[in-house]
Amino acid sequence: MGAIYQHDIDAESGDALIGYHLFHTADRGKGIGTRMLGILQKYVVNETAIKRLVIITGRDNGASRGIALACGFEDMGGAWEDPKNLVVYAWSVTRL
């Protein structure tokens, strides 16, 4: 089991933060998080006006960083809140 959600949606900029978590360690490393994020990306493209998804995660959280990269997110560098320990990933929504 896990959860994925968008939060802190900024209507003016079109940005939304993304959070995700797999609750059981046995579920990790199976591509579940990547599939969850991919489904959310499709939903955002087809059903919302959001322009960019943003993930903030720990520099030491290789699993979370891997999910972001696997889903096409770009490494934007350190987060302003804590650039030493946190990194930002962003994905710009493309609509045809």
What's the end-to-end separation, in Å? 33 Å
Tally of extended strands? Answer: 5
Give the count of helical stretches.
Answer: 2
What is the string of SSEs from the N terminus onward?
EEHEHEE
- Summing up helix and strand content along with how strands pair, one would put the structural category as alpha+beta
Order of neighbouring strands in the sheet with most strands:
1-2-3-5-4
Kindly report the average pLDDT value: 94
Give the C-alpha Rg.
13 Å
Main sheet attributes: strand count, strand direction, barrel closure? 5 strands, mixed
Strand fraction:
35-45%
Which fold name is given in CATH as the topology? Aminopeptidase
Number of domains: 1
The CATH superfamily bears the name Gcn5-related N-acetyltransferase (GNAT)
Per the principal axes of the C-alpha atoms, what is the gross shape? globular
> How helical, in percent, are the residues?
25-40%
Oligomer class: single chain
Reported CATH architecture: 3-Layer(aba) Sandwich
Could you name the ranges where pLDDT drops below 50 across 5 or more consecutive residues? none
Classified by CATH, the class is Alpha Beta
